[in-house]
Amino acid sequence: MLTVPLTLGLGLAALVTSFLSGLFGMAGGMVLMGLLLVLLPVSSAMLLHGITQMTANGWRAWLWRRHVQWGIVARFLLGGAVAVGVFTLIRYVPGKAESLILLGLSPFMAMAVPSHWSPNVSRRGHSTLAGLLCMGVQLIAGISGPLLDVFFVKSSLSRQSVVATKATMQVFGHLFKTVYFGSLVAASEAETLDITVTALCIGMAVLGTNLSRRVLDAMSDAQFRSWSQRLVALTGTVYLGQGLFLLVVR
What we know:
The protein is mainly α. Helices cover about 80% and strands about 0% of the residues.
């Protein structure tokens, strides 16, 4: 059972991380995933993260719905469905150390891709590949924002279109994750998810997303890309160190 201070802390975390996601389209989910992995069993953490981020991304997609590139989203879903099908067959649940290590490595793997090799999400095959890879990573690490961002680097989309299209993709990505880990939690006698905590996180996710809208409008495209890269690199370093520590001591 979660204590009242811990419950309120999770609500505050959902608020702050949804605000970050509203600005950068990925950093908030990464921060929240790391916190939940520390506090909850893996399947419960994945389930609560999926519900919270599905809400935050869904509200963000609705706010910026005029900028969503639906063709890209549809092709992304095709690749994502393949990844979910594979994971459903093997019923894989990662350990905390493995999840944190992959979570921490994800922004650096994205940065390691040479600029002349960077895929372009606007291309048909590339957006499908993004769905396949990102959904696979999401089911292990809980997030795929940094990897997904690689597919947007060479696109000519505005920051509003980047945020809106990524948010829509992530709605479906987190929906797949929620269904997958929800079935695992439902089948487990050892794991449950508190309804009060879930409702609080959903409400804070909507509030944080609303608060971020004016700030995003005031940012330039250069500021948007610069700050997002710095934030995910810092967060990745922390989680990588934490995951390696858990791997060594277990």
